[in-house]
Amino acid sequence: MQGRFFRVLVVDDERFFREAIQDALSGAGLECLLAADGAEALEMVDEPTIGAVVLDVRLPGMDGLEVLGKIREKRRALPVIILSAHQDQSYVIDALRQGASDYLAKPLHEEELTLAVRRALETYEHAATADALRSRLAQLQHGAARLVTLARSGGDSAELHSAVAQTVSDVLGADKASLMLLDDTGSELRVAAATGSKLPAAEMDPVPVGEGVAGVCLARSEPMWVSDVTTDPRFRERKTRDRYDSTGFVVAPVVAGDRALGVLCSTDPREGGTPYPEDLLLLRVLAQQAAALLSAEESGAAAAGPSVSAPEATTLPLDEAGGSEDGEMARAVCEAVVAEVEPVRVVAGALAAAGEALGAQCVALHLRDPEGGLTCEGAWSPGEASDRESLATGRGLTGTVLETGRPVATDDPSRDPRFDPEIDTLAAGEPGPFLCLPMRFRGKTLGVFRAFLAPPARTSPRAGEVLTAALSTAVRNVLLYRSLVDSIEEVARARRESRDPA
Q1: What would the pLDDT profile of 123-176 be if each residue is shown by its tens digit?
Q2: What's 12-28 look like in SS3?
Q3: Which of 15, 227, 427, 437 is the most buried (most CB within 10 A)?
Q4: Which residues contact 459 (CB under 8 A, 6 or more apart)?
């Protein structure tokens, strides 16, 4: 599981079953903690890395139902899988009524056990992701508003730089965070402010543009989530620093218009492990806010930073919206995503939140289909407008977004030479202000989000960046749900085959 590590607590008074379950799950790459009775289990269940419990209903002293009730009091969202013998069916029914997530009958089928536990862990990861994202979005809104207040108060540059780095650290929960700015030559990044380092920022080594994680990020003008810099092919041949506890990084370029200002970096999560993939959404919003504030700070002075390659698209003018508004939009979309599990409702909620935030006449999500095209997964409209049900790939502005993974935002798509009226318009065929965003999952572009705005409405590239990450979360949840359904079908098939070997 990306960015999070969860273990399984196995509770059974029979040593044979405890160790057999541990062996089966360990063989599937899952780590276990073992408890022989309810009291021991309740002492261990507070461990935050526990993401699922396998609990026998027949335990000495405190029975399984009582243990289940106390686990639910301590950690209500923690999934508990009940183990029972065939004669314990009444216990099973009571356990399910009390909130057990699943049950397995003894003797256990190893594949059935592994699939059930993986399903429980994925369910818990979804809940943990939702809770963490809600908390961090609230911190994002507060931090962005604090930066705007500080900038307007007329404080000096060093104070603003320190506040930016500290906000990154607070929002992403990172021990080490930094703001790196281009020097006067535009060839090196120098640390303007940092948290969690023993060295003062002025004594830290500069990073040449194009080298290291920060330098590559700026050279490509590409936000990056790096789970392990030592194995990532983008950095395998590059020299990396060893002053960090974690090998994972989240970095985002700070760019104002087409001018590069620097990079925001975050590493060493306080919870340990690698940064969460969702951190990229938060850092991108903060980088956009920092760019606006730093650019305003420099107004009237000569621009030191070089130009960067903009996406190959006509982009709309950056609006006046601050990071707090972007954070509110991301919060609304993410709240809609985590409020549901079933794909149709996940997509409907996310699209409604995005469409209302943009003031769109129609928004839609298209995902790649087995035939190689794009199929509409869901759409939202406040009126009669509708998007196309299917799209050919490799054509129009939509095809450009799918192939390059870069967003397109234009108030007049028909002026772009790549515009295709059979692809880049509503079903009725009328062109208008158009926003098309790549939907990413595990580094791949799996589809696009399209928004058709009512003229003369305009949107900002910054809003597009926020929505790209927030809506990609919806795609991720849809795919995880379908994976769970596939697992359930595999369990059912395994049960049928065990009963009828022929």
Answers
A1: 888 778 777 777 887 788 788 888 888 888 877 889 999 999 999 999 998 999
A2: CCCHHHHHHHHHHHHHC
A3: 437
A4: 316, 319, 358, 409, 433, 435, 451, 453
Same fold, 155-298 and 323-484: yes
CA distance 366 to 439: 9
Residue with tokens 């515009």, as numbered in its chain: 419
- What is the band of 114 on the pLDDT scale with cuts at 50, 70, 90? very high
Q: Check residue 202 and report its DSSP letter.
A: G
**Domain ranges for the chain:** 155-298, 323-484
φ and ψ at residue 30, rounded to 5 degrees: -110, 135
Domain covering 323-484: architecture: 2-Layer Sandwich (3.30)
Asked: is 155-298 a CATH 1.10.10.10 domain? The reply is no
Q: What is the pLDDT of residue 307?
A: 40
pTM, two decimal places: 0.60
Q: What SS3 state is found at 307?
A: strand
Sheet containing 434-441: give its strands across. Answer: 390-391, 374-380, 360-368, 444-453, 434-441, 408-410
Q: Helix (H, G, I), strand (E, B), or coil: what is residue 236?
A: coil
Question: Of 495 and 94, which is predicted with more confidence?
Answer: 94
